[in-house]
């Protein structure tokens, strides 16, 4: 199928499909005139790529993981790598939650100590 049909069937723009190709996430065949032609399994591959992007994985990580999908099925290596990525995201979420909690603490403490004429307040008259 051609790029326009793949875009229509997957809901992805042709620009995104070209980007996936640049990132080596997708490898179309080329006709003699240079037109892209995609195999039927490209639809499933695009869906997987979009799921992995939505999960927060980078194109570099996705490029390393997608060869671990054979006939649309995850290999043990893929499952291991996905678990590692999930653990990385869990650590990042914990760090962000800790940062948010510290900000909440500062906000709560600072709001009880507001002074008039504070040079950091935006609503003070000059």
Characterize the largest beta sheet: strand count, sense, and whether it forms a barrel: 2 strands, antiparallel
Overall pLDDT metric: 85
Counting structural domains, the number is 1
Question: Which term fits the overall shape?
Answer: elongated
Percent of sequence in beta strands: 5-15%
CATH C-level category? Mainly Alpha
Radius of gyration equals 23 Å
**Count of helical regions:** 5
Strand order of the largest sheet: 1-2
Can you count the beta strands? Answer: 4
CATH architecture: Orthogonal Bundle
Terminal-residue CA separation: 66 Å
Sequence of secondary-structure elements: HHEEHHEEH
Say what the CATH topology is. Multidrug-efflux Transporter Regulator, Chain: A, Domain 2
SSE-based structural type: mainly alpha
Low-confidence sequence ranges:
none
What does this protein look like?
- With 126 residues, this protein is mainly alpha-helical.
- The protein has one domain (3-111): Orthogonal Bundle (Multidrug-efflux Transporter Regulator, Chain: A, Domain 2), CATH 1.10.1660.10.
- Helix content is 58%, strand content 6%.
- It contains 5 helices and 4 strands, in the order ααββααββα.
- The chain has helices at 3-10, 14-22, 42-54, 59-65, 76-111, and strands at 29-30, 36-37, 69-70, 73-74.
- The protein has a two-stranded antiparallel ribbon. It has a two-stranded antiparallel ribbon with strand order 3-4.
- A hairpin with a 5-residue loop joins strand 1 and strand 2 (36-37).
- The longest helix is centred in the last third of the chain and has 36 residues, at 76-111.
């Amino acid at each position: 199928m051609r790029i326009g049909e793949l875009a229509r069937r997957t809901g992805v723009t042709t620009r995104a499909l070209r980007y996936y190709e640049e990132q080596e996430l997708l490898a179309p065949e080329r006709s003699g005139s240079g037109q892209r032609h995609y195999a039927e399994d490209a639809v499933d591959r695009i869906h997987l790529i979009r799921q992995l992007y939505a999960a927060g994985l980078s194109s570099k990580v996705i490029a390393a993981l997608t060869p671990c999908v054979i006939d649309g099925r995850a290999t043990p290596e893929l499952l291991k790598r996905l678990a590692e990525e999930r653990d990385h995201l869990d650590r990042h979420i914990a760090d962000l939650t800790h940062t948010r909690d510290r900000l909440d603490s500062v906000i709560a403490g600072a709001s009880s100590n507001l002074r008039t004429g504070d040079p950091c307040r935006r609503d003070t008259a000059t």
